[in-house]
Every structure is written in C-alpha cells, then in structure tokens.
Design goal:
Layout (H helix, E strand, L loop, with lengths): L1 E3 L2 H12 L4 E6 L5 H13 L2 E6 L19 H11 L3 E3 L23 H5 L3 H16 L3 E5 L3 H13 L5 E5 L19 H22 L5 H14 L4 E7 L16 E8 L2 E8 L7
Parallel strand pairs: 1-4, 2-3, 2-5, 3-4, 5-6
Antiparallel strand pairs: 7-8, 8-9
The chain binds pantoate.
C-alpha cells in the first residue's frame, strides 16, 4: 500500500494506472471500523484499484462541535487499510488554503431537514470536501455508508447536478450484535451510555416491524419509537419518517418507499441511524 500526503503525490501515483485500471474510492475521516472495512471490501470487488482517504474535514464541523476531539488513529487505520488490501491511502495535512477556502459548494433545500437543520453548514462542508477529493482522485466509483443517508443522498445529487463521472455506491450500515450502528463516535460512549444507545436501533427496528405488519399511521410508529427511547432516558434530536430519495416528510405510508431517521445525543456522543420501513430497497 502506498501512502500519499499531498494532492500532487496521489495524482502522480494514480496517473499512469488510470488509463488501464478502474478506481474505487472510499473517503473517510479515519478511526476506521468494520463499516469502513465493508466499504473497502465492496470497493475491491467493484474496481481494479482501491483508494482510501483519511481527512478530518474542518469545514463540516460547527463551532461547538467535536473537531478537536474527533479521534485521530492514523497508525491503526493504515494497518487496517494495508490488511484489507487498499492500494493507495491518501492522508493530506490540509486541503484548503491557509486563509480558508474562498470557493465552496452549497447544497440547496435537502439540507434543511434532519442533520442539516441541527448542523447548519455541515453538508456544504461535506459536499465541498467530497468535490475536492473527487477532483484529486478522479475515481470511477465512490462508496459511502448508508448510516449517513442524508450525506449519501446529497453526494448522489451533487454528482448528478454537476455532471460528475463518478458512480456513487451506498454500503449497508454495519451493526454490533445488539443492533447499534457502528460509528467512530461510539468511542465517546461510557459503558452505561453504550447500553442505553442500543435503544436507537431498537426504536428503528420497532417502527420497521410495525410498518411491515401493516401499520400505516406515522404518528403511531413514532409514538412506539419515542416510548423505547424515553425508557432508555434518550430524547431524540429528531425522529422522522421521510421519502428516502427526496427526504421530504411522509404524511402517509401507503406502501411507498419510506425511511425512518433518528438522531440523539447519548452522553457525549451525537448518534444517528436510519432504516427502511418496507422490504423494497429505496434506491
Ligand atoms: O462520512 C464521512 O466520513 C465524511 O463526511 C466524508 C464523506 C469523508 C467527508 O469528510
């Protein structure tokens, strides 16, 4: 595995290979877990060469968020990547000019809900950095986890609106045995918080089971989910059921694609998760 620390270095490394080989790209902020490794495995199955980036993007963190404390575990991450058969690891020190970027991307409307509402500017930071990374790596395929469904939706939309020649592939959320979605931020959980946090996936599974058993009343689904969260002492930042594609709020279920979303703070960790309500996959 080759490690590149600057955009020009990774460009140089990939230049001669690009003509004859397909490139799959897994952008990350490091602190890799089994969710990232499953994206890497999928990437290896889909392309000749796999590039992973590790960059904690300051542009997507709000002023009171965890940019400084976000876990940085480069040596362990590099070992995992090498073992997983990653070909190139891109770990830039920075991707922005010293004075900050003057040109950024702005996502319209989709960010006004779910995480976009509680983290103003977050998704503008995400699509700006993903656009920069795509420009540098020029992948054929890029893979993102479905746990960050709103991010995945926006990145797909960015590639469509900006006519980017990158196929965006979503990877299913990887979970602990009890259902908790893997996240780098799970590291912030104390033992007690960890056992409470499982209520988030339980609440989602409950909504899914009820919907699959024929419950069409969205308020009834939410009520059941809130009861589970409340029992665990968790207040949701949001708990919502939306169209998986447009992310518009659903008012009825009537067997159309729908996805349930939860964000909640558990101790020091802000956790998010989502699940499809019906059997048919959404994209
Ligand atoms: O999902 C993440 O880890 C980040 O948001 C991403 C896509 C790497 C952009 O910084």
């Amino acid at each position: 595995m080759r490690i590149a620390r600057t955009p020009s270095e990774i460009r140089r490394q990939l230049k001669s290979l690009r003509a004859s080989k397909s490139v799959a790209f897994v952008p990350t902020m490091g602190c890799l877990h089994a969710g990232h490794l499953s994206l890497i495995r999928r990437a290896k199955a889909l392309a000749d060469i796999v590039v992973v980036s590790i960059y904690v993007n300051p542009l997507q963190f709000g002023p009171n968020e965890d940019l400084d404390s976000y876990p940085r575990t480069f040596d362990a991450d590099a070992k995992l990547c090498a073992e997983a058969g990653v070909d190139f690891l891109f770990n830039p020190t920075t991707l922005y000019p010293k004075s900050g970027p003057k040109i950024t991307l702005k996502a319209d409307s989709i960010p006004d809900c779910l995480c976009g509402r509680s983290r103003p500017g977050h998704f503008d930071g995400v699509i700006t950095v993903v656009n920069i990374l795509f420009n540098i790596v020029q992948p054929d395929i890029a893979l993102f986890g479905e746990k960050d469904w709103q991010q995945l939706t926006l990145i797909r939309r960015m590639t469509l609106d900006l006519h980017m020649a990158v196929e965006v592939v979503g990877g299913e959320t990887v979970r602990e045995a009890d259902g908790l979605a893997l996240s780098s931020r799970n590291r912030y959980l104390t033992t007690a918080d960890r056992s409470r946090a499982v209520a988030i996936s339980r609440a989602l599974y409950t909504m899914q089971q009820l919907a699959r058993a024929g419950e069409c009343d969205i308020e009834a689904l939410k009520h059941a989910a809130i009861a589970i969260l409340t029992d665990a002492g968790i207040t949701a930042e949001y708990l919502d059921i939306r169209n998986p594609d447009s992310l518009k709020r659903k008012v009825t279920l009537n067997n159309r694609p729908a996805r349930a979303f939860i964000a909640a703070r558990v101790g020091h960790a802000r956790l998010i998760d989502n699940m499809p309500l019906h059997q048919t996959e959404d994209f």
